[in-house]
Amino acid sequence: MAAAPPRIGGLVLAAGAARRFGSPKQLAPHRGRPLLEHALAAIAAADGLERRVVVLGAGAAAIRAAVDLQGVEVVLCEGWEEGQAASLRAGVTALADTVDAVVVTLGDQPEIDPRAIERIAAARDGRADAVRATYAGRPGHPVLLERPLLAEVAGLRGDEGARRLLASATVRLVSCDGLGGDLDVDLREQLES
After folding, report:
1. Per the confidence metrics, is the pTM higher than 0.85?
2. Cα–Cα distance for residue pair 4/42, rounded to 1 Å
3. H or E stretch including 142?
């Protein structure tokens, strides 16, 4: 009997208040639609994901009203003010019991491409704790976390994602050159350029 195919979840983190941006950047117009919609469209279009979740926090009601969620399930992060760790914990908690691994992207990265998500998910090798995209040799998103790292997410705190976990993990780097990009929009000037 053949082994069941791996169950991989997709996770978009979009719970922050965008203080440096100066307004809810999830709603900032970019190429004719809200910024967050680009990341949601990418995760929705990526093949091979069992479930897809977006974590919202600050301004969640306004975001839900203004953004086409692309069929992605919404998880509310009540403790979003803590920082990215709270958002990651909320998303992983929502997915952990139903998947073997989670591909994480960020809601403020409008150039994330579904093909990069698929490439990272397909690069699982049974040995690495994580798979991480690179662009021109620089590590970025998407990042896939295997089950052992998912269990460690519960211990993360503050305004840090999985960086600390990845620093002590076996990480497989996979080039995603030519498959979009991972520009992280923190300032309005970045979006305008």
Report:
1. yes
2. 25
3. strand 138-146
- Is residue 153 a contact partner of residue 162, using CB atoms and an 8 Å limit? yes
What distance in Å separates the CA atoms of residue 184 and residue 9, rounded to the nearest whole number? 22
- In 3-state terms, what secondary structure has residue 130? strand
Residue appearing with tokens 């704790």 = 129
| Tokens 């992207």, residue located | 105
With residue 131 as reference, give the H or E element that holds it. Answer: strand 130-135
* Unique residue bearing structure tokens 């279009």: 45
Instruction: Give the domains, in start order, of the chain with CATH numbers.
Output: 8-192 (3.90.550.10)
Rounded CA-CA distance 122/138 in Å is 20
What's the pLDDT tens digit per position in 90-143?
999 999 899 999 999 999 999 999 999 999 999 999 999 999 999 999 999 999
